[in-house]
Request: fold
Amino acid sequence: MKLRLRAQQLPILATAIVLVGLFSVFSILFRNFLSARVIADLFTNNAHVGIIAVGMTFVILSGGIDLSVGAVLAFTTILIATLIERHQVAPPLALAIAILAGTAFGALMGTLIQVYRLPPFLVTLAGMFLARGLAFVVNPQSLEIKHALYNAVVDYGLPVSGTASLRATSLTFIAVFLLALLVAHFTDFGRNVYALGGNEQSAFLMGLPVARTKIAIYAVSGFCASLAGVVLTFYKQSGDPSSGLGLELDAIASVVIGGTLLSGGVGYMAGTLMGVLIYGIILVGLDFHGGFDSSWQRIIIGALLLVFIGLQRFLSRASALVGAR
Amino acid sequence: MSARFSSRLWWPLAGLALLLVFNLIFDRGFFELSTRNGNLYGPLLLVLHLSVKVMFLALGMTLVIATGGVDLSVGSVAAVVGALVAHLAASGQWPFFSLIGVAIGLAALAGLINGTLVSVGGLQPIVATLILMVLGRGVALGITGGNPIQVSQSGLLYLGRGFFLGLPVSLWLVAAFFAGTSLLCRKTATGLFVAAVGDNETASRISGVNTRVVKLLVYAFCSVCAAVAALITIGDIGRIEPDRLGQLLELDAITAVVVGGTVLTGGRFSLAGSIIGAVLIQALTTTLIRQGMSSDVAPVPKALAILAVCLLQSERLRSQLKWGRGR
Reply:
């Protein structure tokens, strides 16, 4: 039992080692890499991916998958931009409407999955097509957001040290992450998510609220996707119906690199944060180097995925052998 | 068995028929056919031509899904093959058939990697193929340096745009692929093995099916289908955009397979259904665009088709409907 626990924690340990290793290598290779500014930018540039990955972690922990998040993000950004620019809605109200819409969309998908026993892959695939199409219905082109409140939020920065400061977007990311950490590991909901992913049948027989939890999980993912959309509008100061293409796979890859098993039940929220940072740090490193183009980011991420998945597979087999003995 | 088979084909066929009737009433132009230089043109042919790419992918994807797997990497494999072929063709030193050989060989290699990860490595298919999906896109961008490459090789252009006996070459090709695969599945035990692996892997292994080889071959076949789709696409467009070729193609292929009546959990499958599924989605999209829908909104009909098929297959909904009727 003791060894199994350790085996479960090994993937996240490996993730941490890779993160620290990458950071050290880049810090040695490039001057100015090891600075508060680079770290702060890492959070700012990856805030929207990170928030989506946090939602995705809940979904994957429960044994499901959500392919709709990139499209929901796009829908949110263009909805907010259109509401503010075309319909003169006050930004706070526009943001609230957009987040409500995203959450409701997720809850609807969760309901279909739960009530009609449909495969999450297909329902969220349909959700992806639907949200992407609806984003273009709202407005077919990208739309710039010019509003005093937006400028004020964009200009805000919480000084960390020297010239480095944490933007409102990265603060949101950090807040969402901390909240998710609490929810995943210290609440009934979090425990139910793990139970669901471990074995849905057992969870049901133990009397856990399976239906409610499952619908809530997809609602949380929808909430995170639309919140990420909100963050992206502050980052880009525009809404774009074609944004977030393929983002769902970036998020899934981050979660997997973070040590969460796609089969559900095993993983840590902290791993996801590290996965997102690894994703981002590779891009920054390539940027510092200058010689490589972004195609290398995908190749390195692909290789990392292979290594991590291989490691997880090896560990789970090893622990299964020990358990059988 | 035959009754079940026909019932699965029934829904996509009914959907297709409904669309045709709709167009017969509201949009006669949909059926207009014209000949230029002895070649057929018209909206119907355009629908078929536009769905060729997805038809090819759906053929391979059907077999993968039948074994209980899924292949997310087909879009990226198509991008890598397209990029490499376009790159080699641009040098002008590679004859047409060696280009085809390179494309098929590269794709088979990619498929074998996927197959090995799934069957020998024991990874979940989604995860295993996610690796090549992410990595492949990077390789494709690396080959071309991120820029589009023009394709002017006459053989490739003929594959994509040419006509043979009045019909597009791509249609003949997909028909031949479909006929070959169907024969292989129906007249030999291949189809049975594939479905058996998806139905119950342990049982089929115990009864002597080499499940590993079946999976390896199925993933290799799926990648080869992606390569052919890539060749046709770059010939059709006349250039390759490595960041866009095959983008989301894996999801379109999965959609076609599911709409065609093959269940994601594996087991029984229908190649004809997947072909009809691919045509159905394209016909639906084209019809809606002709009715004035913006082409950007094209994903919406796909979403509705998936949801409709899912709900039709849902036991729960059926029982609810019966219960409602009973009251």
Summary: Chain B has 14 helices and six strands.
